[in-house]
Amino acid sequence: MTLIAPTLQAFFTDRLARQLQASPRTIASYRDTLRLLLGYVHDTTGKQPCSLDWDDLDEPLIARFLDHLEHDRHNSPRTRNLRLTAIRSLFKYAALQHPEHAAVIARVLAIPPKRFEKRTVTYLTNAEAAALINAPDLKRWEGRRDHAMLTLAAHAGLRVSELIGLDCDDVVLGTGAHVRCLGKGRKQRAVPLTNDAQVVLATWLGERAGRPQDPLFATRTGRRLSRDAVEQRVSTHAKTAAIASASLKNKQLHPHVLRHSCAMSLLQAGVDTSVIALWLGHADVRSTQPYLHADLTIKERALALLTPPTVTPGRYKPPDALLAFLEDL
């Protein structure tokens, strides 16, 4: 009998924080998962989390917990798989620390992720993106901030975390204009800026008048915008933009849609997928494949190359030279 408490604590302090140097977001996600798991065990068995051992967290209990997430908490299969990833990470660490519980741990690690339908990505056309970018009220300070933020999101394809993490000195204007950001896996990258984005950001930086380390997009009190605040601003401006572009009424807009829109614009402009992967900060070019599935123009060009089914197959034969001469008279 081995209590899980010391190992769980070491998993966060030693494995995640020291060895893997996981990001705060990853640590918070794993923490929330294990809090939900321990709370579920306490509610269903009555055992206190500090008194649990590894035999209490067997495969049937973990499977019931995953079902609880889907049916009672109404989590999507994607979220369910994310929780399972955190649990499996803990159990992989426990396998090294407690070989005497190898059988229980192996059965938990054998739980497969759940398959789910993968929908095509939602993106905006150029007209729809322009309507959303122009939706903020430029007479208000918040409107001018949101206009610059939406412009940068649509033109550079930044993630929300990258967008709200920008400082004023991360924007470089002039020759070789670009924006520096810190993406997933602590990977830094520089994204070039379009001429339109340069003009908007130059105006905003002049009004922002912040110090180099101040947040580029801040609240009235100078604090960084949160993810929820960005989502709320996009949702608010989407309602206004729907007046100018009726097609937006049928789309559920969130900040990541602007990232998809940037990728689709690059793809339709003929940019290679490997370059798009570098632009977006994807670790693998395969992450760019969903945009190929969503782009109808590529499929339409392929369709144009096909032979119509009404055409009789065969090779072209020129007419008889003498008959051609007579027909041309």
Keywords:
single chain, 329 residues, mainly alpha, hpI Integrase, Chain A, 2 domains, three-stranded antiparallel sheet, 15 helices, 3 strands, extended
Task: Summarize the structure in words.
- The chain is mainly α and 329 residues long.
- The protein has 2 domains: 5-109; 126-302, hpI Integrase, Chain A, CATH 1.10.443.10.
- The protein has 15 helices and 3 strands.
- It has helices at residues 5-19, 24-45, 59-71, 77-97, 102-109, 126-133, 141-156, 160-164, 195-208, 227-244, 255-268, 273-280, 289-294, 296-304, 321-328; strands at 171-172, 178-182, 188-192.
- It has a 3-stranded antiparallel β-sheet.
- A hairpin with a 5-residue loop joins strand 1 and strand 2.
- Helix 1 crosses helix 4 and helix 7 packs antiparallel against helix 9 (195-208).
- It starts with a helix and ends with a helix.
- The mean pLDDT is 88.
